[in-house]
Amino acid sequence: MKKVFHYLALAVCLLPAMVSCSDENNEPQSGVTNHIYLSLPGGTSTLAEGSDEALTVDVTLSYAPSADLTLKFEAENDLDGVLTLTDNTVSITAGSTTGSFTISARNATGLTAPASFSFKVAEVTPAGTPVDIKENVTVTVNPASGATPLTPELKALVETWKTKYGIDITPWLGNIKLSGSLQFPGSGTRDAFVSPSTLTLSGSTLFNLSTESTEEMPVLNMDENPMGLTDYLYRSFLRLTVDDREYFALEDEGSGLELMELLNWNATSQETFGVTLPGLRITSIANGKANVEFVSEGERLIYGTNGQPIYNPEYDMNLTYNYASSWIPFNYTYSAWSRQLDMIANGVPSALELLTYGVSAAPATYLGISDVLEDAWEVDEEEDGVANLYVRPSGVIDFNAGTMTFTFPFDHADQYGYSRVTVVYSLK
Q1: Is the pLDDT of residue 77 over 60?
Q2: How far apart are alpha carbons 20 and 23 in whole angstroms?
Protein backbone atom coordinates (compact mmCIF):
# COMPACT_ATOMS: atom_id res chain seq x y z
CA MET A 1 0.00 0.00 0.00
CA LYS A 2 1.43 3.35 -0.96
CA LYS A 3 2.62 5.09 2.17
CA VAL A 4 1.26 8.58 2.77
CA PHE A 5 3.89 11.23 2.17
CA HIS A 6 4.96 11.78 5.76
CA TYR A 7 6.07 15.13 7.09
CA LEU A 8 3.58 16.69 4.67
CA ALA A 9 3.30 19.81 6.75
CA LEU A 10 7.05 20.29 6.50
CA ALA A 11 7.09 19.59 2.79
CA VAL A 12 4.37 22.16 2.16
CA CYS A 13 6.57 24.84 3.74
CA LEU A 14 9.74 23.82 1.95
CA LEU A 15 11.49 22.87 -1.20
CA PRO A 16 11.70 24.41 -4.70
CA ALA A 17 12.82 23.40 -8.10
CA MET A 18 16.16 24.84 -8.96
CA VAL A 19 15.72 26.91 -12.07
CA SER A 20 18.09 25.67 -14.72
CA CYS A 21 20.68 28.26 -15.57
CA SER A 22 20.92 27.00 -19.14
CA ASP A 23 17.24 27.21 -20.12
CA GLU A 24 17.95 30.36 -22.11
CA ASN A 25 19.64 29.55 -25.40
CA ASN A 26 19.38 32.95 -27.00
CA GLU A 27 21.56 35.91 -26.09
CA PRO A 28 19.62 38.85 -24.64
CA GLN A 29 20.25 42.47 -25.48
CA SER A 30 23.84 43.69 -25.47
CA GLY A 31 25.09 44.78 -22.07
CA VAL A 32 23.06 42.27 -20.06
CA THR A 33 25.21 40.40 -17.55
CA ASN A 34 25.87 36.75 -18.36
CA HIS A 35 25.66 34.89 -15.05
CA ILE A 36 28.12 32.09 -14.31
CA TYR A 37 27.08 29.04 -12.29
CA LEU A 38 29.85 26.87 -10.85
CA SER A 39 29.20 23.35 -9.59
CA LEU A 40 31.05 20.23 -8.48
CA PRO A 41 29.54 17.29 -10.38
CA GLY A 42 31.64 14.73 -8.51
CA GLY A 43 29.73 15.37 -5.30
CA THR A 44 32.72 16.21 -3.11
CA SER A 45 34.26 19.54 -2.19
CA THR A 46 37.26 18.34 -0.18
CA LEU A 47 40.90 17.74 -1.13
CA ALA A 48 43.89 16.58 0.90
CA GLU A 49 47.12 18.50 0.37
CA GLY A 50 49.85 16.64 -1.47
CA SER A 51 47.41 14.01 -2.79
CA ASP A 52 46.71 12.92 -6.36
CA GLU A 53 43.04 13.82 -6.01
CA ALA A 54 41.51 16.28 -8.46
CA LEU A 55 38.07 17.88 -8.65
CA THR A 56 36.24 19.05 -11.76
CA VAL A 57 34.43 22.38 -11.58
CA ASP A 58 31.64 22.70 -14.14
CA VAL A 59 31.01 26.15 -15.61
CA THR A 60 27.54 27.00 -16.94
CA LEU A 61 26.39 30.33 -18.41
CA SER A 62 22.90 31.76 -18.07
CA TYR A 63 22.73 32.25 -21.85
CA ALA A 64 24.72 31.18 -24.89
CA PRO A 65 26.96 33.97 -26.26
CA SER A 66 26.77 34.86 -29.95
CA ALA A 67 30.59 34.93 -30.16
CA ASP A 68 33.29 32.78 -28.56
CA LEU A 69 33.85 33.66 -24.89
CA THR A 70 36.94 32.94 -22.79
CA LEU A 71 36.96 33.01 -18.99
CA LYS A 72 40.04 32.68 -16.80
CA PHE A 73 39.34 31.53 -13.23
CA GLU A 74 41.43 31.93 -10.09
CA ALA A 75 41.02 30.87 -6.47
CA GLU A 76 40.12 33.79 -4.22
CA ASN A 77 42.56 34.71 -1.45
CA ASP A 78 44.88 31.80 -2.20
CA LEU A 79 48.00 33.76 -1.31
CA ASP A 80 50.08 30.65 -0.62
CA GLY A 81 49.17 28.85 -3.83
CA VAL A 82 47.46 25.94 -2.10
CA LEU A 83 45.24 25.13 -5.08
CA THR A 84 46.46 24.24 -8.57
CA LEU A 85 43.99 25.08 -11.34
CA THR A 86 44.36 23.13 -14.58
CA ASP A 87 42.79 24.34 -17.84
CA ASN A 88 41.39 27.26 -15.87
CA THR A 89 41.16 29.36 -19.04
CA VAL A 90 37.76 28.09 -20.15
CA SER A 91 36.76 28.66 -23.77
CA ILE A 92 33.04 28.55 -24.48
CA THR A 93 32.15 28.56 -28.16
CA ALA A 94 29.35 30.65 -29.59
CA GLY A 95 25.99 28.97 -29.06
CA SER A 96 27.22 26.90 -26.10
CA THR A 97 26.84 27.47 -22.37
CA THR A 98 29.17 24.97 -20.69
CA GLY A 99 32.82 24.35 -19.89
CA SER A 100 34.96 23.12 -17.00
CA PHE A 101 38.32 23.28 -15.25
CA THR A 102 40.05 21.06 -12.70
CA ILE A 103 41.63 21.78 -9.34
CA SER A 104 44.03 19.87 -7.12
CA ALA A 105 46.29 20.39 -4.11
CA ARG A 106 49.18 18.18 -5.27
CA ASN A 107 51.86 20.73 -4.49
CA ALA A 108 50.40 22.03 -1.26
CA THR A 109 52.39 21.33 1.89
CA GLY A 110 52.54 22.75 5.38
CA LEU A 111 48.88 23.39 6.13
CA THR A 112 48.18 23.24 9.85
CA ALA A 113 44.39 23.62 9.52
CA PRO A 114 41.80 23.13 6.78
CA ALA A 115 41.71 25.98 4.24
CA SER A 116 38.65 26.86 2.14
CA PHE A 117 38.54 28.67 -1.20
CA SER A 118 35.97 29.94 -3.67
CA PHE A 119 36.66 31.24 -7.18
CA LYS A 120 36.60 34.43 -9.22
CA VAL A 121 36.86 35.45 -12.86
CA ALA A 122 40.31 36.98 -13.34
CA GLU A 123 39.99 37.74 -17.08
CA VAL A 124 37.26 37.68 -19.69
CA THR A 125 37.66 37.83 -23.48
CA PRO A 126 36.32 39.82 -25.28
CA ALA A 127 37.37 42.36 -22.68
CA GLY A 128 34.53 44.24 -21.08
CA THR A 129 31.98 41.44 -21.52
CA PRO A 130 29.62 41.74 -18.54
CA VAL A 131 29.81 38.53 -16.49
CA ASP A 132 29.48 37.62 -12.83
CA ILE A 133 29.54 34.46 -10.72
CA LYS A 134 25.95 33.89 -9.66
CA GLU A 135 26.59 30.55 -7.93
CA ASN A 136 30.04 29.78 -6.55
CA VAL A 137 31.53 26.66 -5.00
CA THR A 138 33.74 26.31 -1.94
CA VAL A 139 36.57 23.77 -1.87
CA THR A 140 38.28 22.78 1.39
CA VAL A 141 41.87 21.52 1.48
CA ASN A 142 42.79 19.45 4.52
CA PRO A 143 46.34 19.15 5.86
CA ALA A 144 48.25 16.13 4.55
CA SER A 145 47.93 14.30 7.83
CA GLY A 146 44.98 16.18 9.20
CA ALA A 147 44.70 14.11 12.35
CA THR A 148 44.72 15.89 15.70
CA PRO A 149 47.78 14.90 17.78
CA LEU A 150 46.89 12.23 20.31
CA THR A 151 46.86 13.06 24.00
CA PRO A 152 48.87 10.80 26.35
CA GLU A 153 45.59 9.19 27.42
CA LEU A 154 44.61 8.34 23.85
CA LYS A 155 48.11 7.08 23.06
CA ALA A 156 47.79 4.71 26.01
CA LEU A 157 44.46 3.44 24.68
CA VAL A 158 46.02 2.79 21.26
CA GLU A 159 48.62 0.57 22.92
CA THR A 160 45.92 -1.16 24.97
CA TRP A 161 43.97 -2.08 21.82
CA LYS A 162 47.13 -3.42 20.20
CA THR A 163 47.59 -5.78 23.11
CA LYS A 164 43.94 -6.57 23.76
CA TYR A 165 42.69 -6.97 20.17
CA GLY A 166 45.78 -7.06 17.98
CA ILE A 167 44.69 -3.98 16.00
CA ASP A 168 46.36 -0.64 15.26
CA ILE A 169 43.90 2.22 14.92
CA THR A 170 46.49 4.88 13.97
CA PRO A 171 46.46 4.22 10.17
CA TRP A 172 42.80 5.22 10.30
CA LEU A 173 43.56 8.67 11.71
CA GLY A 174 43.86 11.49 9.18
CA ASN A 175 42.53 11.91 5.66
CA ILE A 176 41.25 8.59 4.32
CA LYS A 177 40.28 8.20 0.68
CA LEU A 178 36.76 7.04 -0.14
CA SER A 179 34.65 5.84 -3.03
CA GLY A 180 30.93 5.26 -3.10
CA SER A 181 27.53 6.17 -4.40
CA LEU A 182 24.18 7.64 -3.38
CA GLN A 183 21.15 6.19 -5.16
CA PHE A 184 18.32 8.72 -5.13
CA PRO A 185 14.71 7.51 -5.71
CA GLY A 186 13.31 10.77 -7.08
CA SER A 187 9.55 11.42 -7.10
CA GLY A 188 9.90 14.81 -5.43
CA THR A 189 7.90 17.83 -6.53
CA ARG A 190 10.81 20.14 -7.41
CA ASP A 191 12.91 19.81 -10.56
CA ALA A 192 16.02 18.96 -8.58
CA PHE A 193 14.30 16.02 -6.88
CA VAL A 194 11.92 14.64 -9.52
CA SER A 195 14.12 12.13 -11.33
CA PRO A 196 15.90 9.08 -9.91
CA SER A 197 19.67 9.44 -10.06
CA THR A 198 22.94 8.00 -8.79
CA LEU A 199 25.58 10.33 -7.36
CA THR A 200 29.21 9.21 -7.31
CA LEU A 201 30.96 9.91 -4.01
CA SER A 202 34.71 10.49 -3.89
CA GLY A 203 37.44 12.46 -2.14
CA SER A 204 38.47 11.87 1.45
CA THR A 205 37.23 12.12 5.02
CA LEU A 206 39.20 13.40 7.99
CA PHE A 207 39.11 10.86 10.85
CA ASN A 208 40.13 11.57 14.43
CA LEU A 209 40.12 9.49 17.58
CA SER A 210 37.33 10.48 19.95
CA THR A 211 37.85 11.21 23.63
CA GLU A 212 34.79 8.97 24.15
CA SER A 213 37.04 5.96 23.48
CA THR A 214 37.51 3.39 26.23
CA GLU A 215 39.80 0.41 26.83
CA GLU A 216 37.06 -1.82 25.44
CA MET A 217 35.98 0.32 22.48
CA PRO A 218 37.75 2.68 20.06
CA VAL A 219 35.53 5.55 18.91
CA LEU A 220 36.23 7.53 15.75
CA ASN A 221 34.93 10.91 14.58
CA MET A 222 34.51 12.00 10.97
CA ASP A 223 35.51 15.65 11.27
CA GLU A 224 35.58 16.69 7.58
CA ASN A 225 33.44 15.52 4.66
CA PRO A 226 31.75 12.59 6.45
CA MET A 227 30.84 9.76 4.04
CA GLY A 228 31.84 12.09 1.17
CA LEU A 229 28.47 13.82 1.52
CA THR A 230 29.27 17.41 2.53
CA ASP A 231 28.59 18.96 -0.87
CA TYR A 232 25.47 16.86 -1.46
CA LEU A 233 24.02 17.72 1.94
CA TYR A 234 24.64 21.44 1.55
CA ARG A 235 23.21 21.66 -1.95
CA SER A 236 20.13 19.66 -0.96
CA PHE A 237 19.59 21.89 2.08
CA LEU A 238 19.80 25.07 -0.02
CA ARG A 239 17.40 23.66 -2.61
CA LEU A 240 14.91 23.05 0.17
CA THR A 241 15.20 26.56 1.62
CA VAL A 242 16.63 29.79 0.21
CA ASP A 243 17.01 28.45 -3.35
CA ASP A 244 13.36 27.30 -3.31
CA ARG A 245 11.34 29.96 -5.12
CA GLU A 246 8.16 27.90 -5.17
CA TYR A 247 7.42 27.13 -1.53
CA PHE A 248 10.03 28.58 0.80
CA ALA A 249 11.70 31.70 -0.59
CA LEU A 250 8.57 33.41 -1.89
CA GLU A 251 8.71 37.04 -2.97
CA ASP A 252 5.73 38.49 -1.12
CA GLU A 253 4.54 36.22 1.70
CA GLY A 254 4.95 32.97 3.55
CA SER A 255 6.66 31.67 6.68
CA GLY A 256 9.87 30.92 4.79
CA LEU A 257 10.12 34.54 3.68
CA GLU A 258 9.33 35.66 7.24
CA LEU A 259 12.26 33.62 8.58
CA MET A 260 14.59 34.86 5.83
CA GLU A 261 13.78 38.48 6.64
CA LEU A 262 14.15 37.83 10.37
CA LEU A 263 17.62 36.31 9.90
CA ASN A 264 18.74 38.45 6.95
CA TRP A 265 19.16 35.14 5.15
CA ASN A 266 18.79 34.56 1.41
CA ALA A 267 20.36 32.85 -1.60
CA THR A 268 23.18 35.41 -1.78
CA SER A 269 23.89 36.02 1.92
CA GLN A 270 27.37 34.95 2.96
CA GLU A 271 26.94 31.88 5.14
CA THR A 272 29.18 29.10 6.47
CA PHE A 273 28.22 25.42 6.51
CA GLY A 274 29.89 22.44 8.13
CA VAL A 275 29.03 18.85 8.88
CA THR A 276 30.68 16.11 10.94
CA LEU A 277 29.75 12.56 11.94
CA PRO A 278 30.97 11.85 15.48
CA GLY A 279 30.80 8.71 17.59
CA LEU A 280 31.64 5.80 15.28
CA ARG A 281 31.94 2.93 17.74
CA ILE A 282 34.27 0.02 16.88
CA THR A 283 32.71 -3.12 18.39
CA SER A 284 32.87 -6.94 18.18
CA ILE A 285 36.59 -6.85 17.41
CA ALA A 286 37.95 -10.25 16.47
CA ASN A 287 40.50 -11.64 13.99
CA GLY A 288 41.32 -8.22 12.58
CA LYS A 289 37.71 -7.32 11.79
CA ALA A 290 35.05 -5.36 13.65
CA ASN A 291 31.65 -3.72 13.34
CA VAL A 292 31.27 0.05 13.16
CA GLU A 293 28.13 1.27 14.90
CA PHE A 294 27.06 4.78 13.90
CA VAL A 295 23.29 5.10 14.40
CA SER A 296 21.77 7.25 17.16
CA GLU A 297 18.48 6.35 18.86
CA GLY A 298 16.05 8.20 21.08
CA GLU A 299 14.32 11.54 20.73
CA ARG A 300 15.90 13.92 18.25
CA LEU A 301 15.78 17.03 20.43
CA ILE A 302 16.78 20.51 19.28
CA TYR A 303 19.34 21.99 21.66
CA GLY A 304 19.77 25.69 22.31
CA THR A 305 22.89 27.77 22.85
CA ASN A 306 22.87 26.78 26.54
CA GLY A 307 23.16 23.09 25.66
CA GLN A 308 19.63 22.35 26.88
CA PRO A 309 16.60 21.22 24.84
CA ILE A 310 14.59 24.12 23.44
CA TYR A 311 11.26 24.27 25.27
CA ASN A 312 8.08 25.99 24.09
CA PRO A 313 5.97 26.83 27.16
CA GLU A 314 2.88 27.62 25.07
CA TYR A 315 2.70 24.00 23.92
CA ASP A 316 4.45 22.54 26.99
CA MET A 317 6.91 20.61 24.83
CA ASN A 318 10.55 20.22 23.96
CA LEU A 319 11.11 20.84 20.27
CA THR A 320 12.43 18.10 17.99
CA TYR A 321 13.75 18.11 14.44
CA ASN A 322 11.31 15.35 13.49
CA TYR A 323 9.67 12.27 14.95
CA ALA A 324 12.34 9.76 13.94
CA SER A 325 13.62 7.58 16.76
CA SER A 326 16.77 6.43 14.92
CA TRP A 327 18.98 8.47 12.62
CA ILE A 328 22.46 8.93 11.18
CA PRO A 329 23.83 11.60 13.57
CA PHE A 330 25.33 14.07 11.14
CA ASN A 331 26.18 17.17 13.18
CA TYR A 332 25.55 20.37 11.23
CA THR A 333 26.77 23.91 11.77
CA TYR A 334 25.27 26.73 9.73
CA SER A 335 25.63 30.44 10.34
CA ALA A 336 21.97 31.38 9.68
CA TRP A 337 20.86 28.64 12.09
CA SER A 338 23.24 30.05 14.70
CA ARG A 339 21.50 33.42 14.30
CA GLN A 340 18.11 31.80 14.83
CA LEU A 341 19.38 30.03 17.96
CA ASP A 342 20.76 33.31 19.30
CA MET A 343 17.39 35.00 18.76
CA ILE A 344 15.60 32.20 20.60
CA ALA A 345 18.08 32.50 23.47
CA ASN A 346 17.40 36.26 23.57
CA GLY A 347 13.64 35.76 23.72
CA VAL A 348 12.63 36.80 20.20
CA PRO A 349 9.08 35.34 20.00
CA SER A 350 8.89 34.91 16.21
CA ALA A 351 12.14 32.91 16.11
CA LEU A 352 10.73 30.34 18.54
CA GLU A 353 7.29 30.35 16.94
CA LEU A 354 8.66 29.65 13.47
CA LEU A 355 10.90 26.86 14.77
CA THR A 356 7.92 25.27 16.55
CA TYR A 357 6.17 24.98 13.18
CA GLY A 358 9.23 23.53 11.46
CA VAL A 359 10.29 26.76 9.77
CA SER A 360 13.97 26.67 10.49
CA ALA A 361 17.45 27.48 9.23
CA ALA A 362 18.69 24.20 10.74
CA PRO A 363 19.95 21.72 8.12
CA ALA A 364 18.80 18.86 10.37
CA THR A 365 15.19 20.00 9.92
CA TYR A 366 15.35 18.99 6.25
CA LEU A 367 18.04 16.29 6.05
CA GLY A 368 17.61 12.77 7.44
CA ILE A 369 13.94 12.98 8.41
CA SER A 370 12.91 9.30 8.69
CA ASP A 371 13.85 6.36 10.90
CA VAL A 372 16.81 4.36 9.63
CA LEU A 373 16.54 1.20 11.76
CA GLU A 374 13.18 0.39 10.19
CA ASP A 375 11.64 1.00 6.79
CA ALA A 376 9.34 3.91 7.60
CA TRP A 377 8.50 4.51 3.92
CA GLU A 378 7.40 0.93 3.11
CA VAL A 379 7.58 1.64 -0.61
CA ASP A 380 5.79 -0.96 -2.74
CA GLU A 381 7.86 -0.95 -5.93
CA GLU A 382 5.13 -2.47 -8.10
CA GLU A 383 2.29 -0.31 -6.82
CA ASP A 384 4.21 2.93 -6.23
CA GLY A 385 6.49 2.81 -9.25
CA VAL A 386 9.46 3.85 -7.10
CA ALA A 387 12.48 1.74 -6.16
CA ASN A 388 12.57 0.64 -2.52
CA LEU A 389 16.16 1.48 -1.64
CA TYR A 390 15.88 0.88 2.08
CA VAL A 391 18.77 -1.06 3.59
CA ARG A 392 19.53 -1.59 7.26
CA PRO A 393 22.55 0.50 8.33
CA SER A 394 25.79 -1.43 8.59
CA GLY A 395 29.46 -0.63 9.05
CA VAL A 396 32.43 -3.01 8.95
CA ILE A 397 36.17 -2.38 9.31
CA ASP A 398 38.77 -4.87 8.10
CA PHE A 399 42.10 -3.99 9.67
CA ASN A 400 43.89 -6.67 7.63
CA ALA A 401 42.60 -5.48 4.25
CA GLY A 402 42.67 -1.78 5.19
CA THR A 403 39.01 -1.13 4.32
CA MET A 404 36.01 0.33 6.09
CA THR A 405 32.60 -0.13 4.46
CA PHE A 406 29.26 1.56 5.20
CA THR A 407 25.77 1.08 3.83
CA PHE A 408 22.77 3.03 5.12
CA PRO A 409 19.45 4.64 4.13
CA PHE A 410 19.01 8.41 4.06
CA ASP A 411 16.28 10.81 3.02
CA HIS A 412 15.50 14.50 2.96
CA ALA A 413 12.33 16.49 2.48
CA ASP A 414 10.76 16.28 -1.00
CA GLN A 415 11.68 12.77 -2.05
CA TYR A 416 9.60 9.57 -2.02
CA GLY A 417 11.39 6.76 -0.24
CA TYR A 418 14.95 6.44 0.97
CA SER A 419 18.21 7.03 -0.82
CA ARG A 420 20.78 4.26 -0.42
CA VAL A 421 24.34 5.30 0.47
CA THR A 422 27.31 2.97 0.03
CA VAL A 423 30.82 4.13 0.97
CA VAL A 424 34.15 2.28 1.04
CA TYR A 425 37.22 3.77 2.73
CA SER A 426 40.62 2.37 1.69
CA LEU A 427 44.05 2.88 3.21
CA LYS A 428 46.88 3.62 0.79
Answers
A1: yes
A2: 6
